[in-house]
Amino acid sequence: MSAGFSNRAMTMDKTKLTPSFWTDHLQYLRKSIFARITRIRAGSKHPTIIGTSIETVIRRALRDYFPHRFSIGTGQIAAHTGELSPQMDILIYDQTSFPLLALHEDDSVIVCCESVFGCIEIKTKWNHRDIEDHFVRFTAVDRERHPSFNSQSSEDAASYTVICVEPLNDPDLTGSLLKKQDRQVLITSLQGNVAWFSEWGEGAFCNVKTENPLETVFQHLLGDCMRKKFIQQTGPVETYNAVGRYFGWKPIA
Question: Between the CA of residue 195 and those of 4, 12, 73, 85, what are the distances in Å?
Fold first, then answer.
């Protein structure tokens, strides 16, 4: 080994992956995102502009960190019956197997409900009634999946995450319609240290202490999406038949 190479090697970055590496890194990411949100709010007082900009910042972060087999966008979910969900701020879906049903000029999409792994709603402040109404209308469409992707008999149902920008001390989830056994629900605030989590099959919320709510969202969403993607038992025939219901194709037996 030459002396020159040895000297260069000695000056190389000695950063190592440690148990806290992911946590530390996402703390910096959280600070960066919050700095951008602060700049957005300083630059405009228009609620729609502020809301759309914040959604864009978080969507970009998810695209940067999630495997590219997961498409991340915004739009609506469709059932083969023609029903549409309300607008979803962030959609995590499968475009490797499922087609888009619509792509609009603002890059929002309409996707088959069977293709959706999870969705995120970004709220400035917690409003239980608005969020509950949005959730109910979303799940009504998601439950119209093809039997091979049936959210009532499998763990394929799209997860639902709410991220509040303002601090959220207690969302008071007693008797809430958000408590569903057929899907994962996560609620948190970018400025808090608690997340409220309802696991698939539980139908109840537990409090999760967190130093970084962004890390909690990433961890739960990434784990849930990867599990759904890699352990799904549905094959090309089931996928074809699911897509075929939107276009009137003859099913394959």
Answer: 52, 39, 24, 25
